[in-house]
Design goal:
The structure holds two protein chains of two kinds. Chain A is built from 13 helices and two strands. In chain A, helix 2 crosses helix 13. Chain A has a two-stranded antiparallel sheet with strand order 1-2. Chain A starts with a helix and ends with a helix. By secondary structure, chain A is mainly α. Chain B is α/β, with parallel strands linked by helices. Chain B contains 19 helices and 14 strands. In chain B, the strands form four sheets. In chain B, strands 1, 2, 3, 6, 13 and 14 form a six-stranded mixed β-sheet that branches. In chain B, strand 9 and strand 10 form a beta hairpin. In chain B, helix 10 packs across helix 19 and helix 18 runs antiparallel to helix 19. The termini of chain B are far apart. The chains are: A mainly alpha, B alpha/beta. At the A-B interface, helix 12 of A face helix 3, helix 4 and helix 18 of B.
């Protein structure tokens, strides 16, 4: 009986042993993630403007009502955010996949050097990157327009960041240029893990290049592709710095996305409660979107 | 044994260090100064930094910790620090920040200190007005800089004009003639970025010149718009003429911020712009052309008016060394010190510094001093939201998304909404 009790205590001790090591993690996640999240949600129910501290009041869902039913700029920013995210992730993936396949090809030489070159846009700090682009895209003296003029394409030169029709595609292009190397490197790592024997077996069976890609390469990088696409959907949707530094959301809100709109409400107008409601909306939108994406994906993989 | 010795020596060293640290901390007061003056970029900032070191030498026990930021970051950092009940001991502010920071309660009310400061008399009332909000004073005016019409005399001469334009009509004629005559040069450039700091500082003088005000107080002491739709329409028409009808501004210049504007003037892309004394910064970059730079009063419409930018140095509400900060601030704003740190491209706020021969004889500064009587600061209300409305409507006109009359009506309506919240 006493032996049984000893065993039970030992098993309990062993079972609880790992948990103290989680305490630091829990404290950090709690302090840096959970507390701000709860505080943000709480703040979103308040009318709180830093300019008028005496007017703070609990307004229930008034901020959300204004956001969803009265604020036209919010809907414009949401639409822009969705387009910006979808277009960026789509083109980043295409470019990343293409460049990774190219760098993985046995016909390519100086692979390490080329990998280094491809990585350059990604390793340059975002602020430096964006400010460089703003200068390169200047209408009169910008590098891009100068090159177009030298090539005899002067009629295409324009104010890339001030032309209402071109500003949004330009911002997407800059973001794609900056982010695709991350896909290249990650997909390349996935490609190197695909066993060569599969391709050799395929060759014996007479597969075409497309079939090899469809049935060997793509399934081999499917898992890693899912992860980077999800990560980039989240990162791009909440991306602030690229657009803020390039256009600040202008001109005429043409590049306004939710993070720039949130920033404007919080740090230009000091409407902290309203800004918090935008933040909570972004959080819920991402949780729902990524959740749906995951469930669709698991159905897709399950059916395959 | 060896280990014991090492431990003992380490322990003693630690105790000594701690004791010295505590004694040093008790004897030295560190004043946190947050401003925008980077010694790497301007002569005046170097002089200011030298003043700090001089003060430290003359006041052992005081250490000036100088934090340099650009204006946008400084504003944001002050707001965030203030929201967390912290911040600097001494801070530099744009005049338009004073109402915001006073409302937020992050700057110290120094009314009583100013009232007994014997050097108060050397600062003009117009500069004190900017440092005040709701009859309370929140700092000392440091730089008082009106805007002028900065123009290239050589370009105007080439286009057949002996002097700068005096009225809006003359201004349009000169801008058009320069654009047509001088190769590769446009008559005028201005700021219109939707987040522009400078855009509203250029827009409001045009509105003032029509006889309008941005806001005024009504009989119930409530803020109301100070202009009519017609006055705003006149300003939008003026901008629209310059950009779209006469085409005297560089194509693609809609959305310019101050960097683009200042650079365009420096490299000679534009012949005229609305600008301040800091342009002297660019003397080296402009090269020979700098000798053709001239300043003149802004062209008049019904009135003559220009923007009067007053910068203010205040004390942080959460400073734990307010007396020391005030002593330092009044020393820094003293005659001798101000004469040093505004000798370059800044303009001093003190009348006894302005009247010094080296300032009076400074050819660059003369046109700026001359337009001080025309100068007006921003009204004492939080301006961020109404500035955004102003620039949004201006952009809508420039991009021809709205007619000037429609934009004027929309601007008035948006301002009314903003003021309703301010008046609550």
């Amino acid at each position: 009986m006493r032996q049984k009790g000893k065993d039970y205590h030992l098993r309990l001790k062993q079972a609880l042993a790992p948990y103290p090591y989680f305490i630091i993690l829990l404290v950090l996640v709690g302090a840096l993630m959970i507390y701000p999240l709860i505080d943000g949600i709480w703040l979103s129910f308040w009318q709180k403007n830093l300019l008028y501290p005496t007017r703070d009041k609990f307004v229930w869902f008034a901020n959300y009502r204004k956001l969803l039913f009265e604020d036209e700029i919010f809907w414009l920013a949401l639409k822009n955010s969705i387009i910006f995210t979808a277009a960026s992730v789509f083109f980043e993936y295409l470019l990343g996949l293409g460049s990774a396949l190219l760098l993985n090809s046995k016909y390519i030489r100086f692979k390490n050097f080329l990998r280094g070159i491809v990585l350059l846009p990604w390793v340059v700090p975002i602020a430096v990157n964006s400010i460089n682009w703003t200068w390169m895209l200047l209408p009169e003296y910008g590098f891009v327009n100068q090159v177009l003029k030298v090539l005899g394409l002067g009629h295409l030169a324009r104010g890339w960041l001030s032309d209402l029709n071109w500003v949004f595609p330009t911002v997407i292009l800059v973001n794609v240029w900056r982010s695709f190397p991350f896909y290249t490197v990650t997909i390349l790592a996935g490609l190197t893990l695909i066993p060569k024997e599969l391709y050799e077996a395929g060759q014996i069976d007479g597969t075409t290049r497309w079939q090899a890609f469809r049935y060997i390469t793509f399934p081999g990088i499917k898992g890693i592709s899912t992860v980077i696409v999800i990560l980039h959907l989240i990162w791009t949707f909440v991306n602030f710095d690229v657009i803020y530094l390039l256009t600040g959301g202008g001109p005429l809100h043409r590049t306004e996305v939710l993070p720039t709109y949130l920033y404007q409400q919080a740090f230009s107008y000091f409407n902290m409660g309203y800004a918090a409601s935008i933040g909570v909306f972004i959080f819920i939108f991402l949780v729902v979107t990524v959740g749906l994406y995951f469930s669709r994906l698991s159905n897709f993989y399950g059916n395959e | 044994m060896e280990l014991k010795k090492i431990c003992l020596v380490s322990l003693i060293s630690l105790v000594i260090l701690l004791v010295f640290g505590v004694v040093y901390a008790q004897e030295t007061i560190e004043l946190q100064v947050w401003d925008v003056f980077d010694p790497a970029t301007s002569f005046d900032a170097v002089a200011r930094e030298e003043c700090f070191r001089q003060y430290e030498k003359e006041n052992p026990g005081i250490k000036i910790q100088h934090n340099i930021l650009v204006y946008a970051d400084l504003h944001e950092k002050l707001v965030v620090a203030g929201a967390a009940n912290s911040g600097p001991d001494v801070l530099h502010m744009l005049g338009e920040w004073v109402p915001e920071f006073a409302l937020m309660g992050i700057i110290e009310d120094v009314t009583d200190r100013v009232n007994v400061w014997e050097e108060k008399q050397y600062f003009p009332d117009s500069t004190w007005a900017v440092a005040n909000y709701e009859s309370k004073c929140y700092g000392i005016p440091s730089i008082a800089s009106p805007r002028v019409l900065l123009y290239r005399e050589d370009y105007l001469k080439e286009a057949g004009f002996d002097g700068p334009p005096n009225t809006w009509d003359e201004f349009k004629t000169v801008a058009q003639k320069v654009t047509q005559t001088v190769e590769g040069v446009y008559g005028f450039g201005f700021c219109s970025s939707s987040n522009a700091v400078r855009g509203p500082q250029e827009f409001l003088p045009f509105l003032w010149q029509t006889g309008g005000e941005w806001v005024v107080k009504d009989e119930n002491n409530k803020w109301i718009p100070g202009f009519t739709v017609e006055q705003a329409e006149e300003v939008f028409n003026f901008y629209n003429d310059l950009m779209n009808n006469l085409k005297v501004c560089p194509p693609g210049s809609i959305g310019w911020e101050y960097l683009e504007l200042d650079n365009a003037f420096t490299v000679g892309q534009i012949a005229m712009c609305h600008n301040g004394s800091w342009m002297q910064h660019y003397q080296e970059k402009a090269g020979e052309a700098f000798q053709h730079w001239r300043g003149a009063p802004m062209p008049a419409n019904k009135n003559r008016a220009t923007y009067f930018e007053v910068k203010v140095e205040g004390i942080g509400k959460f400073s734990t060394h307010k007396d020391e900060a005030w002593k330092f601030l009044t020393w820094l704003m003293g005659k001798d010190q101000m004469a040093k740190h505004t000798r370059g491209d800044n303009l001093p706020s003190r009348t006894d510094v302005v009247s010094l021969p080296e300032f009076q004889e400074d050819e660059w500064k003369k046109p700026f001093f001359a337009v001080i009587p025309d100068g007006k600061p921003f009204p004492p209300i939080p301006m961020a939201e109404s500035n955004k409305a102003m620039m949004d409507e201006l952009q809508a006109v420039l991009y021809q998304q709205k007619a000037p009359a429609e934009a004027a009506e929309s601007l008035l309506a948006r301002l009314e909404d903003i003021l309703e919240f301010i008046n609550e």
